[in-house]
Amino acid sequence: MIHPIVAYGDPVLRKVAQPVEQDAPDIRQLSEDMFETMYDAAGVGLAAPQIGRSVRLFVVDGAPMDDENLKDFKKVFINPELLGEEGKEWGYEEGCLSIPTIRADVYRPEKVTIRYVDLDWKEHIETYDGMAARIIQHEYDHLEGILFTDYLSPVKKRLLKSKLTDISKGKVSAEYRMKFPQR
Ligand code: NI
Questions:
Q1: Structural domains counted in the chain
Q2: What's the pTM?
Q3: Average pLDDT over the chain, rounded to whole?
């Protein structure tokens, strides 16, 4: 089932998400719904709070990015924990399905090591770099209530303020269904 994507300004995007309990009955369904919702919106990552569920789960599929290193990067990360970030910080113009029409350069370390469990509750510890690391860092942030716009300079934030307010009021066009907090 495709869910509406929660827009900027909704308090659920600012909460620290709760761990998923082992044997939570609807986790497979939730993951399927999240992939469906992400594909419908042409995204490469989606975190559960973005469909209004404040739990520690995100999905990624880098295939649409046309990057050799991302073609098999389709995964469900449950209860992820960032064990470390390293390497030189590099900038990339990020966007977010919850903040349509806004893109901005964000600087992040190039490598990330993450521990998580998959749908079979098997634990993994993996290291990623490049775009895969960036997608993980962006989605992981969602579980901590952090949005990419938080990293921008005060000047840039001020410039974007009215646009962000408009988004929370639904005064924005997106090619997918959204849920706006102030409408
Ligand atoms: Ni996002």
A1: 1
A2: 0.97
A3: 96
